[in-house]
Every structure is written in C-alpha cells, then in structure tokens.
Write a structure and sequence with these properties.
Length: about 400
C-alpha cells in the first residue's frame, strides 16, 4: 500500500489474513518483514505514522560494524552485506565510507592499537596527519587514530521509505501506513490483530515498536530491564569548510567507553580514569561525540549526549516528552569545536528516544543488545537496544525468522 498523499483520506483495506503481521515500520520491523517474505511467507506491516518517522528515520546513518563484539559483530557483518545488496536493489543511498576514530591522548591511541591487533586487517592504525586529513578535523592535540573500512553510512529516512515501497510492491506483502495496532487476541494456531483500520488474522505477530514496547507489554519490558534513553543530536554547518557528503563517519575518544569492541583493551581503564578526573561532565551526560556528513549538503549530524541527570534521576525511564537539555547540547558543541578546530553553526536540534538494556548473560542472545521475547501466545517482540538497530537488525532478522514461522 502506498503512503497516502497528504490530501488523500482514502486508505486501502487491510488484507483479511497474513502469515506474519509486523507492528512497526522502523528498521527492526522492516528487516523482519523482508526476511519472512524472502522465505515465502505473506506479510503485513502496520505502522501508525503516515511515513517512517521513528528512531530509525532520525538517526545519523552510521552502520558501526567494526566496533561490535562477539554475536553482535556477526549480526553487524551480515547486516552490512544486506544493506549493500538492498541499496543496489531498492536504489537508496548507502556507501562503504568507513569510519575514522580520532585519538587525542596516548591512552586512547593505546586502545585503538589493541583493536587493530585484534581485528587483523579490519581496522588500520593512522598517524596524526593521516587522521586529521581523513576525518577533516583540525585539533592540535590529535595523536593518531584508526580507520575502520567495514563501516557504512546510509541515508536512513530514504532507505526506510525505499525498503517499505519495495516490500509493498511485491505480491503477498503490504505496508499499511497510518494504521495503529491496538490488541492481539490468541486463537488456535492464529492471532487476531485489531488495528485502527480493521482486523487481520495472523499465523504469527512480530512487535517491533522500539521505545514503545512498554505500551503493549509493560511487565515484559520491566522484566528485561529495558529503559528509555533519550539522546540529543544537532545538525551543524562548519563555516569555511565543506565536508565531503560521502566522507567517513568520525568518532571521538569517548565512544571508546561505549562500544563493545574495546572492552578487552587494558588501556581502557586509563581512558575512563582520565575522563573521571579531568572531564567528569562528559561521563555524566554520556557524551559520545560522533559526526557524519549529511549525504545531501555536507553539513554535519552531530551526536549524541543525554540529559546529565538522566542516569541518576530514574524518572526518564518512561519520559516520552522529555525536556531538552541545554547542558548536553553545550557539551556536544564544546567537544565538536575542539575536535574540528573551529566553531560550528547549529541548524537544527533533535531529541530521539532510544532504549538501553542490561545485556543478558545467558540464552541465545547472551552479550547482545537484542531483546527477543514471547510475551503472549503467537506474539514475539524484537527490540534492539543501545543505539544499534541500523547496525544489526538486518542480520538479526535472519536468526529470529528462522525460529518464527
Ligand atoms: C540519536 C540516535 C542516533 C542513533 N544512531 C544510530 C546509528 O548511527 N547506528 C545504529 O545502528 N543505530 C543508531 N541508533 C539506534 C537506532 O536508531 C535504533 O536502534 C533503531 O532505530 C530501532 O529501530 P526500531 O525499528 O526498533 O524502532 P523505530 O525506528 O522507533 O520504529 C518503531 C516503529 O513502531 C511504530 N509503532 C509504535 N507503536 C505502534 C503501534 N501501536 N502500531 C503501529 N506502529 C507502531 C512507530 O511509529 C515506529 O515507526 C540511534 C538512535 C538514536 C536515538
């Protein structure tokens, strides 16, 4: 079903039945719908918005393959191949730009050195001059960096639109926009899905609603420990310097504390200790400085940080309309200015809801940010936490759909 034109009120009727009904047309939902359809199942995706507008559509577009670990890394590698293939088939912008991690202290460089040693060719150490040139930064304190050639960039909003349209154009596949799933009623070997525009009988239902999971299954959400994590993003111009729209994603030193690939480096403790002593405000606001050039005009998408009190004040757990934090934006801008070596001009500001989860120790998804559960008969929920949906969902879907239908 095509997205309705803004002036049209006509909506095609929902099909009466589908093998798989997917709730949510973010990257997680579409990934599973594509995978199920490729295996011969009929699919219906229901999405409450008239176009892709969830967390997946508002993200910076970095498919961060190399900095994952273990089972998450294998999903990210599979996702990488699928993005490139789908980009060719559906005609959206996806590019193997790679990523550059910039080290501005010797402890950060030591961590990168360990990554390069562990990754055997999938990461390359750069000297200071190579780093500043590749990342187009001009900070005087750059001591070196790493190039991660496997990383991709994708124009997320465009990609979601193109993937949904490609799916919808296939036989036995529909994407119903402006359609809110309301309830699921279990029957024998089937589930009745009640939605705002009708009812559908499904063999199986897959709920992929990201940060809204607690609206359907509050107990399951609480049991897994999923929490909201609202992250701030800025779009900035760098006067006097054009960034190549096809340039690499650029990551600053605080991302070493976030990304799983670095946990085995003995030097990581030195990075954490230095920040704790000299810049604790970056830890408080979880500032993970990263920027990607916009694929259109080369302005920079700059992220991410969160309200400095979010970790301590538990009330953000279910806060759906949080106040933006000026302090978080100010820290992002301070760090970006230092790295780029010049001031930037803010063009837009966002706050995007995401989810975080304590990584499970046991089970098929041990150590990963994937929360897959069966909270009701016939209903499976899939949530990707820790800001990794676009990096991993296409690979994860292949594993989940295997056991689903
Ligand atoms: C600032 C920021 C930057 C990020 N950057 C990256 C990055 O660089 N790389 C990366 O891999 N990941 C990144 N992420 C994470 C990534 O965006 C998420 O992991 C991913 O978008 C989750 O996808 P999703 O499909 O689960 O959720 P969403 O994209 O939010 O999709 C859920 C969909 O469900 C729909 N929905 C909800 N309830 C209903 C209902 N009742 N009926 C019908 N539809 C419903 C919503 O409208 C929405 O469209 C970032 C996240 C943030 C916040």
């Amino acid at each position: 079903m095509r997205p309705p034109s803004p002036r049209s009120t006509h909506q095609p009727p929902l099909p009466a039945t589908a093998d798989l009904v997917v709730v949510g047309a973010g990257i997680v939902g579409l990934a599973h719908a594509l995978e199920a359809h490729a295996r011969g199942h009929s699919v219906l995706v229901v999405e409450r918005d008239p176009r892709p507008d969830g967390a997946s559509a508002r993200r910076s577009g970095h498919v961060a393959v190399t900095t994952q670990d273990a089972a998450t890394l294998s999903c990210a590698l599979a996702t990488r191949e699928r993005w490139l293939k789908l980009g060719r088939e559906a005609g959206f912008w996806v590019k193997d730009t790679g990523a550059v991690v910039v080290a501005r202290s010797t402890d950060e460089l030591a961590v990168l050195d360990d990554l390069v040693a562990a990754r055997d060719g999938d990461a390359q150490l750069l000297d200071a001059a190579q780093t500043t040139e590749r990342a187009r930064v001009a900070s005087d304190d750059v001591v070196g960096g790493a190039f991660l050639p496997l990383d991709l960039r994708v124009d997320a909003r465009d990609a979601l639109r193109a993937l949904a349209a490609a799916l919808d154009a296939r036989p036995r596949a529909d994407v119903a926009w402006s359609t809110t799933a309301l309830t699921f009623e279990a029957g024998t070997g089937r589930t009745l899905v009640r939605a705002s525009r009708g009812e559908v009988v499904a063999r199986r239902v897959l709920v992929a609603v990201g940060a809204d999971l607690d609206r359907f299954f509050p107990d399951e959400t609480a049991r897994t420990g999923l929490r909201h994590d609202v992250r701030q993003v800025l779009r900035v111009a760098v006067p006097g310097r054009a960034h190549d729209p096809s340039g690499p994603a650029v990551l600053g030193g605080t991302t070493l504390l976030r990304d799983a690939a670095y946990v085995h480096s003995p030097a990581l403790a030195d990075v954490r200790e230095r920040l704790r002593t000299h810049a604790p405000e970056l830890l408080d606001a979880a500032v993970h400085l990263a920027f990607t050039p916009h694929s259109g005009d080369g302005s920079l998408l700059l992220g991410t940080a969160r309200r400095p009190d979010a970790e301590r004040g538990a009330d953000t757990a279910l806060d759906r309309a949080p106040e933006r934090s000026e302090a978080a934006d100010a820290l992002l801008l301070r760090e970006a200015t230092a790295l780029l070596g010049r001031p930037v001009e803010v063009q837009r500001r966002w706050a995007v809801p995401d989810v975080v989860v304590p990584r499970p120790r046991r089970g098929p998804f041990a150590g990963t940010p994937f929360v897959v559960a069966d909270p009701a008969p016939g209903v499976t929920t899939v949530t990707v936490a820790d800001g990794l949906g676009t990096t991993t969902a296409l690979g994860l879907a292949a594993k989940v759909v295997d056991g689903l239908l």
